[in-house]
Amino acid sequence: MGLLDSVLGSLAKGGSTNPLLDGVLSMVNDPAHGGLEGLVRSFQDRGLGGIVDSWVSTGKNLPISADQVAQGLGSDQLASLASKLGMSQGDVSSQLAQLLPDVVDKLTPDGRVPDMGSLGDLLGSLAKRLG
Question: Is the pTM of this model over 0.90?
């Protein structure tokens, strides 16, 4: 099953079998932390704008290393996610390096970060397509 299928499946079922994917979807849906826009801004503010901007754009996604994920998320957010998942920060950042580029890419189909309302609409429409 591809990543998009996993994202869509988790939306349709209200959860996935991948706790890390659930954590990422939680982050992009959390208005307290700025949602997807806040996640993108966090990477941009920490010197990783070129990488994260490639995920948002309609072109090829640049890869990211586990160390860069840790830098982009910041230690507090990474520690919080790792604690919720019962994983080490290194394992979380390593797996996020594989997951984040595709998730951000799929949630920005027009090459721009949608506002929270539009993101909710996008996630809702994706879930409806499965139902």
Answer: no
